[in-house]
Amino acid sequence: MDINKHIASRLLALREARQLSLSALAERSGVSRSNISLIERGESSATATVLDKLAGALGVTLGSLFETDAAAAAEPSPLSSAATQAVWTDPASGYVRRQLSPAARSPMQLVEVSFPPGQRVTYDQVLRENDVFQQVWLLEGELEISLGEQSWQLKPGDCLAMREDQPISYANHGRKPARYLVALVILPFTG
Description:
The protein is an alpha+beta fold.
């Protein structure tokens, strides 16, 4: 599977399902109309930050851009084999994201990340249609996570729980890649 083509088709399908024009999505997300068009045609590999802005403007999580279309299958499999898991590399930071969760409907998603040394990725706070909570469990390396004004230094075995309601920044100040598991739970928005 070509992950950039998959992201392109998911983005287009989500935009059309919400009956948004390119201009409307550009206005909501702060991403240029031409950039969105290039991404939807599979001619540009968007960064994690850009994908997060687009996902937020569409009212979904970043992870939903990597999901298979569960509606396409009558009964999606509850198994996600390693060979079929979507793997994507952020062109800006080089971090590698593996979508672990199967297509079967669930309020929880699991993602494995390998984050290169010396890199930082920041996600701006966006309004979503749901509350998104995440826990990050550091398996290897070191990782600094900032949520709004708070910051934590994670070492292997540490687990941080947070609600995605403020800007989030991930930074690897170490000399080795940081490998971690992210568990996301998506709940109806409570305010």
